[in-house]
Specification:
- By secondary structure, this protein is α+β, with helices and mostly antiparallel strands.
- Helices cover 16% and strands 27% of the residues.
- The strands form 2 sheets. The chain has a 5-stranded antiparallel β-sheet. A two-stranded antiparallel ribbon has the order 1-2.
- The longest helix has 12 residues.
- The radius of gyration is 17 Å and the shape is elongated.
Amino acid sequence: MLIESKMPIEFWDEAEEYDVYVRNRTIAGPIIERVIVSPEKTFTREIPLIDHLRIWGNLCFSYVNPKIIPVGNRHDKLVNIGRQGVFMGFLVNTTKHYKAYFPDLGYVYRVNVIKIDETIRGGIIDLRIRNANIEL
């Protein structure tokens, strides 16, 4: 996933977390009554939904609450509340909140309004990684 999205190794933990999220919801689990089922179905006895899954590490755009932007970077009324970022996955307990890395803020934030462009890889934008030597 890191190579395909052109993301640096600093995001391996986010990639692994999303990989586990996807694997738990796809048919790769145990055999019950001669049928291979997903680990999520085995645990909850319900068929997991996968229509919300997106490609990890792609460019995304999201609303970011101006109150979480550092004071030096905001100009109150004139602050741009739309941010360019990289899609990092979902929160554990819900599919309505996403995780996205915003290079201008330098952190992964929880967002609930997001637009993912699945044609552009997130690694091609300037990620502003601190103390990183990026070679692909």
